[in-house]
Amino acid sequence: MKLWGGRFKGESSKLAEEFNASLGFDKRLYRQDIQGSIVHALMLGRQGIISGEEAEAIREGLSGILRDIEEGKLEIGGGAEDIHSFVETELTKRIGEAGKKLHTGRSRNDQVALDMKMYVREDMDGMAEALSGLLAVLDRLIAGNRKTYMPGFTHLQKAQPTTLSHHMGAYREMFRRDLSRLSDARKRLNECPLGAGAFAGTTFPLDREWTAAELEFDKATENSMDSVSDRDYLLEYMFVLSLTAMHLSRLSEEIIIWNSNEYRFVTVSDAYSTGSSIMPQKKNPDVAELIRGKTGRVYGDLLGLLVTMKGLPLAYNKDMQEDKEAAFDAMDTVHSCVVLMGRMLDTMTFNTERMRESAKLGFTNATDVADYLVGKGVPFRTAHGIVGELVLKCEEKGCALEDLSLEEFRSYCGAIDEDIYDAISLEACVGRRKTKGAPGAEETE
Predict the structure, then answer these.
(1) 157 sits in which H/E element
(2) What is the distance between the alpha carbons of residues 276 and 220, in angstroms, rounded to a whole number?
(3) CATH number of the domain within which 373 lies
(4) Cβ atoms of residues 160 and 152 within 8 Å
(5) Active-site position among 85, 276, 411, 425
(6) Engineering a disulfide at 342: which of 72, 110, 134, 373 sits with its beta carbon 3.0 to 4.6 angstroms away?
(7) Number of C-alpha atoms within 13 angstroms, CB side, residue 363?
(8) Residue 4: pLDDT above 50?
(9) DSSP per residue over 302-313, as a string?
């Protein structure tokens, strides 16, 4: 049954009906649609717009539909145009004429806006829980690796020594910001559009604030035209998801590099690796690679909706139906990526000795030699030049800075004493970095 068929004489094109239908993807909104409809019916009864008996019959009918769907007794389908049509048609089958009064004072425009907001709000809460789980894994890695030394990189070249705690702490900050952005976006979302009608409200005396409170919104929306045409909350959430995906992708990239034979910093668990159909020795970090790859897909979801919305006049346009598939895909994709990243990190083996040995190579303590000279009264720019010459000397000899003899050190600068060796050890290089946010053990803790 079409909810809008009265004005039409001719039959719809079958192809156009299939093109117009959204039930295939908006059926996942069934619970939100039913919950919103129950509260709407109860509000209509409270306001005397329908009788109390009719409101109660609608509530019981809708509760039965929800129960039957969730118990597998009722399949969503039957040729309905969308989830709203399906629910209302099924309700009328069950309770008769009272079911036809459910839609009093509302439009599918404000109904779908409500359903999507409720769905996104719930998904945000699930995403917050998933991010909190990932942060808990990172916190455990940070707490247990304050003296796990490794090289830090700039330009993918060894730069200065740091710790695994410090490195993982950087990702902790990224995901902590994602969680904060999620919280901010949820606050802006939490205004109830139900009662906005098609875009101009209604002549019925709805109590929109009661409806909003019952559905756990902070307030009703302020402008009925904006209520049905707004998808900012969805775009904002998809942007947060895109940023989260980008952070996951950066971490995945490092896991992939660290897992390579050239680095051997980590060993990814068999549970999150796959092999090769032709090369029996291979153990590939496919989960990390897929997380990295799916980031582009999430970006595409965001960009697609941005382009869809950019030229739409007020108020509702059918183009907005295109918001759901992209949004659902982004939500599903990022949620699974966050969960998988946490589990992969939690089961990963960090080859700490290999990381420590790597930190000793590549002159990662060169800056500390310069800082040592500054401590002896040498101007930093002069010290910088002296250390550059020392590095050239080491490259010629094929050795590390700490392998130079005291005489060799002193031939470049007479201010260098025996204490140079203690000053440029891994422990000293990292331990002396005590400024806020630095990798020293005390600051990390």
Answers:
(1) strand 157-163
(2) 56
(3) 1.10.40.30
(4) yes
(5) 276
(6) 134
(7) 18
(8) no
(9) HHHHHHHHTTPP
- Which CATH number characterizes residue 74's domain? 1.10.275.10
Examine the domain organization and report whether 222 and 284 are in the same domain: yes
- pTM for this structure? 0.90
Q: Going by C-beta distance under 8 Å and a sequence separation of 6 or more, which residues neighbour residue 19?
A: none
Q: What's the alpha-carbon Rg for the chain, to the nearest Å?
A: 31
- The 3 state secondary structure assigned to 358-425 is HHHCCCCCHHHHHHHHHHCCCCHHHHHHHHHHHHHHHHHHCCCHHHCCHHHHHHHCCCCCCCHHHHCC
Instruction: Count other C-beta atoms under 10 Å from residue 281's C-beta.
Output: 6
Q: What tens digit of pLDDT does each residue of 387-412 get?
A: 999 999 999 999 999 999 999 999 99
User: 171: Cβ–Cβ under 8 A, 6 or more apart, which residues?
Assistant: 138, 247, 250, 251
> Where do the DSSP E strands lie in 221-348?
266-267
* Nearby residues of 16 by Cβ (< 8 Å), 6 or more positions away: none
Of 265, 248, 251, nearest to 168 by C-alpha is 251
Residues 6+ apart with CB under 8 A from 233: 117, 120, 185, 188, 189
Domain span at residue 55?
10-101
Is residue 389 located within the same domain as residue 429? yes
CA atoms within 13 A on the CB side of 122: 13
Q: Please, are residues 83 and 3 in contact by the beta-carbon 8 Å criterion?
A: no
- Quick check: is 2 in a domain? no
Residue among 292, 305, 322 at smallest CA distance from 238: 305
Of 40, 155, 247, 273, which residue is the catalytic one?
155
Between CA 254 and CA 259 the distance in angstroms is: 8
CA dihedral over 289, 292, 295, 296, signed as positive or negative: negative
Cα–chain center distance at 379: 47
| HSE-CB for 187 with a 13 A CA cutoff | 5
| C-beta separation of 141 from 167 below 8 A | no
Number of domains comprising the chain: 3
Burial class (CB in 10 A: 0-12, 13-18, 19+), 433: buried
Q: Is 155 a catalytic residue?
A: yes
Q: Please tell me whether residue 57 adopts helix, strand or coil conformation.
A: helix
pLDDT at residue 21 in the model: 74
Segment 228-257, tens digit of pLDDT: 999 999 999 999 999 999 999 999 999 999
Residue 202 shares a structural domain with residue 322: yes
